[in-house]
Amino acid sequence: MAGKHTKPDPTGGGLGAMSVEHVATADLIPYARNARTHSDEQVAQIAGSIQEFGFNNPVLIDGQNSIIAGHGRVLAAGRLKLEQVPCIRLTHLSDAQRRAFIIADNRIALNSGWDEELLANELSDLHADELDLGLLGFDTSELEHLLSIDVDEGGASIQAGESQYTNKITAPIYEPKGEKPPVSDLSDSTKTNELCDEIEKSDLPEDVRGFLLTAAQRHTVFNFRNIAEFYCHATEEVQHLMERSGLIIIDMDKAIQNGFVHLSERLGAIADIELSERESGDA
Length: 283
Known about the structure:
Layout: E1 20-24, H1 40-53, E2 59-61, E3 67-69, H2 71-79, E4 84-89, H3 95-109, H4 116-128, H5 140-147, E5 150-151, E6 157-158, E7 187-188, H6 190-201, H7 206-216, E8 221-222, H8 224-233, H9 236-244, H10 252-257, H11 261-280
Helix pairs in contact: 1-2, 6-7
């Protein structure tokens, strides 16, 4: 029968002596009985997060370099070929506490939730800042749902398909505010080009390569502020095609008819920011 375990003092003791050290990735030992799984897709997401934001969450290990928390991060480090990773060594836990904490650290995090209105607002702002929302861990359908949530003037949430398309969201008036930007400033295809180059060099069937090249275009980042300015200076033919492409929303009903429901919501949020800046004189 297992005996009682001494609980560490959360205000000091073993916890107070914590420090981050860099340990060779190859020296870290996964816990053989770790019940938490990590799919290739999730490991890729963690790797993308590390590349974008840095290795900001140290791996927790015991005195023998066995991983307590951070198995997914170590897998991502291996994928990124990182020779060392930041670690915090926990030496104050008994063997039973260590094994229990491995489960608790994973399970308790799952018990939290999201305030969808606050999350939707934050995602809209990050999208306007041209941050790749794919780095956040949500899949495409989740992002589409969250970006379809708007908040009316009273603070109530509005879901896609309700009257905000024609009543709340008004198409902005596009007026020149400066010089016509060059086409090269309308989008950033750096990540797309890198991915396409990798795909072109791959030994894949032609149809698969073609599909992946098409899919790679989703990584192109559009600068909607410059696109709006470019539209103001464009010919009538170019303006028409930009509207048909969903880059500019003039007629909200027509945009919905053309299938730009989700895109119009995102552009609508950006348009609100543009109009607010214009009204405040900050633009």
